[in-house]
Amino acid sequence: QSALTQPPSASGSPGQSVTISCTGASSDVGDFNSVSWYQHHPGKAPKLLIHEVTKRPSGVPDRFSASRSANTASLTVSGLQAEDEADYYCSSFAGRGHSYVFGTGTKVTVL
Amino acid sequence: QVQLVQSGAEVKEPGASVKVSCQASGYTFANYGISWMRQAPGQGLEWMGWIGPNSVDTQYAQNLQGRVTLTKDTSTTTAYMELRSLRSDDRAIYYCARDRSGSLRAFDIWGQGTMVTVAS
C-alpha cells in the first residue's frame, strides 16, 4: 500500500490560513468515509484533529476544518497560531480487511 | 483519564527481537482494538497492524507480515508489539493507539512512543 501524497511543507503568517492536501486513490481516500487528520509535535504523541473526513472531536478548535473531493482530502487551518507549527498527517482506511495508510506528512511553519 | 503508556526505549542488535508494551487505563480495554504505528527518523507515520477488541483478530501491514506479532492481555489491560529479525531500518519510534475503526474510523488516543534503536 503506497503512502498518501501530501506536500512536504506549508507556511503562513499568524492569523492567515493554510490548506494541506492529501491525495490517494479510489480504493482509499475516495472510497471510504474514513479520512482522518493528525497533528504531531515532534517528541509528543500525535493528536487526532479530524475523523470521518470532516468531523472534529470535542476539544479541537473550529479553526481546523477538512473536506474531500474525489481522491483528495484537504485540511485547512484558519487563524494560524504559533502552536499550530507541527507536522500534519492524513490517514485513510484502505480496505482489505482492516488496514490503514498514512500520508507522507506536511510540516507547517508559522512565519 | 483515558491514556496509553508505553514501555521505555530499547536498544537491540540486528537479528534480535523487541517487544514493546502499551498499557491502557481510563476505558474498557476489552471493547477496543489497538493499532500500532512507527516513525523512522525523518520519515512519516507508517501503520503496522491492528489487533481487535477480542484479542484474536489481527491484521498486519504486508511489508511486516511474518516479522511482527500483536497481542493483547485484557487481564492487565496491556497490548504488546513484538518485532523479530530486527534490521537497521527498523530503527524508529513505535506508537500504539486506540483504534476506533468501528465508529470514528480513526485513532483517537495515542501512546507517548517508544524509541527502538537497532545497532551492533
Distance, first to last CA of chain B: 40 Å
Radius of gyration of chain B: 14 Å
Strand portion of chain A:
35-45%
Tell me about the largest β-sheet of chain A. Answer: 6 strands, mixed
Q: Which two chains have the most extensive interface, and how many residues on each?
A: A-B, 29 and 25 residues
Strand content of chain B: over 45%
Low-confidence stretches of chain A are: none
E-strand count of chain A? 9
Order of helices and strands of chain A: EEEEEEEEE
**Assembly state here?**
heterodimer
Task: Describe this entry's structure for a reader.
The complex is a heterodimer of chains A (111) and B (120). With 111 residues, chain A is mainly beta. Chain A contains no helices and 9 strands. Chain A has strands spanning 9-12, 18-23, 35-40, 47-50, 64-69, 72-77, 86-93, 100-102, 106-110. In chain A, a hairpin with a 6-residue loop joins strand 3 (35-40) and strand 4 (47-50). Chain A is globular, with a radius of gyration of 13 Å. Helix content of chain B is 0%, strand content 51%. Chain B has strands at 3-6, 10-12, 18-25, 33-39, 45-51, 58-60, 68-73, 78-83, 92-99, 107-110, 114-118. In chain B, strand 7 (68-73) and strand 8 form a beta hairpin. The A-B interface holds A 1, 3, 32-34, 36, 38, 40, 44-48, 51-52, 55, 57, 89, 91, 93, 97-105 and B 35, 37, 44-47, 50, 52, 57, 59, 61-62, 95, 97, 100-101, 104-108, 110-113.
Short description:
By secondary structure, chain A is mainly beta. Chain A contains no helices and 9 strands. In chain A, the strands form 2 sheets. In chain A, strands 1, 3, 4, 7, 8 and 9 form a 6-stranded mixed sheet that branches.
